[in-house]
Amino acid sequence: MEHVQLFLRGADLDSRTAAQLAGASCVVGVLTVLARMVSNRRAAKEKIQRARSRRDESLQRAEQAVLQYKESHPLAESALILTLSLSELTKKLQEGSLNPEDVFYSYMEKVQYPTWHCSLYCVSLVCSFLTLLFFSVFISQHKNYDSSCGLIIKLDQPEDKDSVIVEVLKRQGAIPFVKTNLPQGLLNYDCGNPIYGQTVNPCNLQKTPGGSSGGEGALIGGGGSLLGIGTDIGGSVRIPSAFCGICGFKATSGRLSSRGVRAALPGQKSVCSSSGPMARDVDSLALCMQALLCDHMFSLDPTIPPIPFNAQIYQSTSPLRIGYLENDGYTGSSPSMARGVREVKALLEQAGHTLVPYSPLKTSDVFPELVVKGILGDGTTTLLQNLEGGPLDPCLKAQVLPYYLPKWLKKTISFLLKPLAPRIASVCSAICGVGSVADQWKHQSAVEDYIHETIAEWRRCNIDVLMCPALGPAFNFLYCGKLSCASSPMILYNLLNFPAGVVPVSTVTAEDEEKLKHYKGNYQDYWDKVFKQAVSGGEGLPVAVQCVALPWQDELCLRFMKEVEQLVRQNRK
């Protein structure tokens, strides 16, 4: 046994296999586990190779198709096409001044293998070889293609039908032309997995694009698509949009259909996931929402309330009472993001809006007790089961490895850390889950109470909408997994089920970087020190603000985002 133990210390094992080996009572047991491990790794390697081959073949087919089209259509105005917004492009297509095939192949050329894709690694598959508008898809079910969620165990399982969102957009003339990359298992705001590798940020190749809709953010931010559909359970649409300098919108959960959309944790209801569009400008987000909120979607999914898009609210110009904050009290904002809020506040006041200071309620308790316990209510069991069958991606390891610890050890670590690092201690305890069904009911009741308390606070402040910092700027690699807590400015609005979106408003300056050197954070703990490291070296990266409204006021949220976008653009002239 001694020789076997020495061998095991040198082996590259995942935590689950190591636990099985530790529990093996004899050499035969150890050898049995090792044999299973070797077999599983071989099977995983073969699955990964098949998936990569499908991607490479699809990209090569796209390259050939583009070359053939360019030879037969040498006058296609690709450079002009790529500068048009979605609204401009749609108008030209409808009036017939642009050929849909020219548009399609211009964008297909942008993402074709091997030049552009290899620098960003954002495309996981080319789906189709036309169009009112066209889009890239994140994890929505798409017929005949895998929706793997970056998980090896979900490879080689092509979908037999489209998701409702994909079906509705296709009916209106849209074309899903690529699928994009995401983090392993989705519950991470980086963008790497063992199947397709690490996606990088188009604004700075040494930075992450964010996640989980990171491939989508990189593709649109890099000019490879006009519109994308992502899902958001903790900022997964808004974080990559902020990191990559584009606009992203998380609708009220239940406003858009989730049928056929792969969920990270099916059945988890405490922290709401919702789909939403990502694009270069707010009008494109609104156009997408207007296209989706139609009778066809309401018919395909009768659980969605039949509320069409209210263009009158979106186009309104009446003055707003706007709550604002620079710091949520849990994760301290970086200097650049706080500056972004201050600058936009000044522009909004100059435009005649009323700005009201606002503070989120009880964030130090809400994040561990309601958010973490809600998402990981089963004590991380489902997530760890999803990760079986292959290696952990580097971007996920720091986040996930504590999940494998036995519950008694997590509780012990939490107890020991409490006087030294109370924030870390509370999260360490929260990842143990809620415990029993009765505790789950109490937890969901506490979430409902918090939602109503927050709405009451909005009423007390008499605010229409809220402006707050987005997470950012874009992180250095391998830091997202170390800082799950940093998603608090974004995930709070999933817990509340408030519609929220981000708008780019500035870029990181040398002065921001100088101020970052003196960053202390709210707790001056280990996580605050790591956050400072994560966002360092960000000069020139996008700075975004987040816009929030009350549930079902999606059009008002988009209208507010549009106001911010217009004021920032006018100020730059």
TrEMBL record:
Organism ancestry: Eukaryota, Metazoa, Chordata, Craniata, Vertebrata
EC number: 3.5.1.99
TM stretches of this protein: 20-38, 118-139
Catalysed conversion reaction: N-(15Z-tetracosenoyl)-taurine + H2O = (15Z)-tetracosenoate + taurine; N-tetracosanoyl-taurine + H2O = tetracosanoate + taurine; (15Z)-tetracosenamide + H2O = (15Z)-tetracosenoate + NH4(+); N-tricosanoyl-taurine + H2O = tricosanoate + taurine
Gene it is expressed from: faah
Gene3D superfamilies xref list: Amidase signature (AS) domain (3.90.1300.10)
Any Pfam family hit: Amidase
Gene Ontology molecular function, alphabetical: amidase activity; fatty acid amide hydrolase activity
PANTHER family noted in UniProt: FATTY ACID AMIDE HYDROLASE
Stored InterPro entries: Amidase_CS, Amidase_dom, AS_sf, Endocannabinoid_amidase
Keywords of the record: Coiled coil, Hydrolase, Lipid degradation, Lipid metabolism, Membrane, Phosphoprotein, Transmembrane, Transmembrane helix
GO biological process: fatty acid catabolic process
Family per similarity comment: Belongs to the amidase family.
Coiled-coil parts of chain: 34-61
Domain of life: Eukaryota
Enzyme class: hydrolase
Protein name: Fatty-acid amide hydrolase 1
Domain Amidase residue range list: 143-558
